[in-house]
Amino acid sequence: LPKPSIWADPGVMVTKGSPVTILSPGSLRADVYRLYRERPSGLWEAKAPQDSSNKASFPFESSSSSTAGQYQCVYHSRKDRSEWSDPLPLVGTGSRED
């Protein structure tokens, strides 16, 4: 399986309290996408999309200091696993009230 890419929408600099979505395109063969965060550690899992987008979406409705960190994505098929994506550093800034 090819190495996934990963990005954040609207970007890697996220105002605390604002929504952010981490996206990762994959492969038609992918069954499950996993998103990992280092310190504080976290794990999220998404089933492969049923449409032709082949893109996993991990939404965070209200970012906080615990949302910030370094993320990586990997996806699995029944018989294989992709390489890890390159790390994505997500940085929390200020708050919406500032």
Name its key features.
single chain, 98 residues, mainly beta, Immunoglobulin-like, 3-stranded antiparallel beta sheet, 8 strands, 0% helix, 49% strand
Can you walk through the features of this model?
The chain has 98 residues and is mainly beta. 0% of the residues lie in helices and 49% in strands. The chain contains no helices and eight strands. The chain has a five-stranded mixed sheet with strand order 2-8-7-4-5, with no helix packed on it. 26% of the residues are buried. The model has no long low-confidence stretch (mean pLDDT 86).
Helices and strands in order:
Blueprint: E1 7-9, E2 13-16, E3 20-25, E4 32-38, E5 42-47, E6 55-60, E7 69-76, E8 88-95
Parallel strand pairs: 2-8
Antiparallel strand pairs: 1-3, 3-6, 4-5, 4-7, 7-8
Q: Nutshell version of this structure?
A:
The protein is 0% helix and 49% strand.
